[in-house]
């Protein structure tokens, strides 16, 4: 009987990232997908700064940036003319090494992840579908439908449902998926074309309640159109053709379409599963939460789920932590998912609201306010922090404690950079570690050496103060680079007590 540590159902970005992280941490994974090949008509485009920061841990970030497209600006159109221009090339400058909006289509993204996963000797098993599973205190027994029509019974310690909005894992667990469905039909078209909207920037039409945006892709004259329709055409989504929706882009934004590479329609839901964990089975990505594409958050949130769960599973499977650590996956990720779904729902509802007042807000007020708001650094940074997910935190949750400087336990470690380098270089090691900015005690140095806990002491520099880091205390960092402890003292007994209380026995990870 085939046995693995973690059986992953679904090979989209969420499942692939989970498999990649676990493989890097020495966990035996098996990943299956019912599709015969990776997707070619994918919808997700944006790779947010927080995802790139975490990808830096596996040497993935450079490949994404090199093969993707950096968006220089966003433009808002009314009545066939651009009325507001928002520079994006350095919108998050000083906050992250990736202070820009990166476009890297999901199909290309998946191919990169598959290539990296194969370097670990792991291949996606295609045309393989989960028929069902049972779990006991000792593990999971799953039934798979194989490509040849046969069935296979296999075993795993844990099961990860990364199998999308129609998740078989979620349905087998009988977990509720409350929410609703947007009335609009979404369409996506990958086109070759020309005109003012093919200048490598993002363009959004504010004229009508139906959303329309032109996203730039790498390569000359390539773009992706994303839009909605809600009139009688939406009642026949299956028969909707590009010719039925393209005229608006042609007329409103002067788009000249030379070639249609592919066209797809879909409905969007806004839902969050009642639970992200049931015993040894977990839900991640679209299997756990779905929402409107406003802000380009969906794929990035699923990837965040995968990284959060990966290091916890690896710790428990290796005996470095007790099983209770896995309880924190749902606690941390479900809170963010609920907030995200509520936020994207409000944004999308505003953008697509119908009626004269909504039209006035979109076509008159928004073009006036957008340049005004973004002329202030604080407004630009707030916008970037929110969309890029660098503001996502686990404050007040079981694994988070303390405050030092402006940094709380549960925060992402702030990035600090000057001519002497940055403080993220050591984060490439997927392990617990301690950062000190300034001086620390001999006791802290000796304790970390004795317990093989990496300690990085940075000479105090002005850049650290600007980033909000505290001087002469310490930050205990989790393997996913979130702050576990923010402390103003340099007493190692604080760390010792933390690990004891959370059932964490050792700190080894992947270098």
Description:
- The protein has 511 residues and is an alpha+beta fold.
- The protein has 3 domains: 2-66 and 104-177 and 273-344, FAD/NAD(P)-binding domain (3-Layer(bba) Sandwich); 69-97 and 179-271 and 353-392, D-Amino Acid Oxidase, Chain A, domain 2, CATH 3.30.9.10; 401-501, Glutaredoxin.
- It has 13 helices and 26 strands.
- It has helices at residues 13-24, 49-55, 61-67, 106-118, 168-173, 242-253, 298-317, 327-351, 356-374, 377-388, 442-450, 462-466, 493-501, and strands at residues 2-9, 29-32, 46-47, 69-71, 73-78, 81-87, 101-103, 129-135, 140-145, 151-161, 179-194, 202-205, 212-216, 222-229, 256-272, 277-278, 281-283, 289-290, 401-404, 407-408, 417-418, 421-422, 433-437, 455-458, 474-477, 483-487.
- The strands form 5 sheets. The chain has an 8-stranded mixed sheet with strand order 6-5-12-13-14-11-15-18, sandwiched between helices. Strands 1, 2, 8, 9, 10, 16 and 17 form a 7-stranded mixed sheet that branches.
- The radius of gyration is 24 Å and the shape is globular.
- Residues 4-343 form the FAD-binding domain.
- This is FAD-dependent oxidoreductase.
Could you write a compact summary of the structure shown?
With 511 residues, this protein is α+β, with helices and mostly antiparallel strands. It has three domains: 211 residues, FAD/NAD(P)-binding domain (3-Layer(bba) Sandwich); 162 residues, D-Amino Acid Oxidase, Chain A, domain 2, CATH 3.30.9.10; 101 residues, Glutaredoxin (3-Layer(aba) Sandwich).
């Amino acid at each position: 009987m085939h046995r693995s540590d973690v059986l992953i159902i679904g090979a989209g970005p969420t499942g692939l990232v989970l498999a990649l992280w676990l493989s890097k941490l020495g966990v035996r994974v098996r990943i299956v997908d019912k599709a015969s090949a990776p997707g070619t008509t994918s919808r997700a485009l944006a790779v947010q700064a927080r995802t790139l920061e975490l990808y830096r841990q596996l040497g993935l970030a450079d490949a994404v940036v090199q093969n993707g497209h950096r968006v220089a600006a966003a433009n808002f159109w009314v009545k066939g003319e651009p009325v507001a221009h928002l520079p994006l090339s350095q919108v998050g400058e000083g906050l992250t090494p990736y202070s820009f909006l990166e476009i890297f289509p999901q199909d290309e993204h998946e191919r990169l992840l598959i290539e990296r996963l194969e370097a670990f000797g792991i291949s996606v098993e295609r045309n393989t579908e989960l028929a069902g599973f049972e779990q006991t205190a000792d593990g999971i027994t799953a039934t798979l439908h194989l490509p040849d029509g046969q069935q296979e019974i296999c075993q795993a310690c844990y099961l990860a449902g990364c199998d999308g909005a129609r998740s078989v894992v979620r349905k087998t667990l009988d977990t509720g998926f409350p929410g609703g469905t947007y009335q609009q039909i979404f369409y996506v078209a990958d086109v070759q074309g020309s005109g003012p909207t093919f200048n490598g920037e993002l363009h959004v039409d504010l004229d009508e309640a139906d959303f329309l945006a032109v996203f730039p892709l790498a390569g000359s004259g390539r773009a992706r159109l994303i839009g909605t329709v809600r009139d009688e055409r939406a009642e026949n989504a299956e028969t909707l053709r590009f010719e039925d929706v393209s005229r608006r882009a042609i007329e409103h934004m002067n788009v000249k379409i030379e070639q249609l590479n592919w066209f797809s329609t879909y409905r969007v839901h806004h839902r969050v599963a009642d639970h992200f964990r049931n015993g040894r089975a977990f839900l991640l990505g679209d299997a756990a939460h779905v929402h409107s594409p406003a802000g380009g958050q969906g794929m990035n949130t699923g990837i965040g789920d995968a990284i959060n769960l990966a290091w916890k599973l690896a710790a428990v499977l290796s005996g470095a932590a007790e099983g209770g650590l896995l309880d924190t996956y749902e606690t941390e990720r479900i809170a963010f998912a609920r907030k995200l779904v509520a936020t994207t729902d409000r944004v999308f509802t505003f953008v697509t609201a119908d009626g004269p007042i909504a039209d006035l807000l979109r076509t008159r007020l928004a073009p006036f306010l957008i340049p005004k708001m973004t002329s202030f650094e604080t407004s630009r940074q707030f916008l970037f922090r929110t969309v890029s997910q660098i503001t996502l935190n686990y404050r007040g949750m079981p694994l988070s404690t303390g405050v030092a400087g402006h940094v709380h336990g549960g925060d992402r470690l702030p990035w600090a950079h000057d001519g002497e380098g940055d403080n993220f270089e050591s984060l490439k090691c997927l392990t617990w570690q301690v950062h000190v900015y300034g001086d620390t005690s001999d006791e802290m140095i000796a304790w970390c050496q004795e317990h093989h806990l990496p300690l990085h002491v940075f000479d105090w520099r002005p850049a650290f103060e600007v980033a909000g880091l505290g001087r002469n205390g310490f930050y205990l960092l989790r393997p996913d680079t979130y702050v576990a402890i923010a402390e103003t003292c340099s007493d190692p007994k604080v760390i010792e007590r933390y690990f004891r209380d959370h059932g964490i026995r050792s700190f080894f990870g992947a270098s």
